[in-house]
Amino acid sequence: MGLEIALNIFHSLVLVLLLVWVILVGRNNKGFFNISFFVFAIVTLIGSDIYWMVYDILRSDARMPIAVNEIAENASFLLLADQIIVCMGGESLLIRNWKKEFAFSVLCVAANVALWIYWSGEWLQDIVGGLTYGTYFFMVVCLITSTEALRKREQRTFAIYYVVVLVTAGSSAVLPDSFSGTADLVLYLILSAGMIWLLLRLFAGRRKRKNKDISQMGLSFLLILYSYSCMYMSSGHWYNAFFLVNAFAFAAAFYYTSRTVREIEEA
Known about the structure:
- This protein is mainly α.
- About 85% of the residues lie in helices and about 0% in strands.
- The chain contains ten helices and no strands.
């Protein structure tokens, strides 16, 4: 419990520092309003972290029911999706046909929700969470494809890889207990491989001068999404490791979102 609380404190501190930064530096910026959805998402997640820490200290032996932290997390997904819409431009979203992105998102999110229900048995929470998570999932897919943050071949490869992750997670869930330990280890290794690749891809894109900030924003938002997926499929030290990456992903996303907003204002 001590390590988990320490990680939550670290995660909260990262978010608080981002919030302080935008208040001190961005309050006089004309584009402050264009990043407000991200700011609100940070505020909700800080509240979620604080609530979780208090609950874990007071009632660490009891399963947490649907509460403030889950509501805040669902709200943050919608706010982050709104931030993507602001940066992409609402009119451009209406012009383009997003049938493929929508179909892929629905299938992946439905598979995730089915796994969550199987693991937790909490139908209502998982379905509601799936709707908000799915909204963010779809917007991230749209952002990646429209900005070509990943090349076409990379998009196809990562899509296939994510399907493999879901199939592996489903297999580990239904295998007999005698194989569950090995299956879980295989799943964690596959999740880690994707995480490492995304991190390397984010750093590699930063070195390319021609790479627009919105493309880097797309990669960092994808890293947020993927880190949540990994967290929802893991436990113990693996969950803690993915949680740390989630904190970094938020810092990177906030940095590139602020740069993207600045470019929009200067255009």
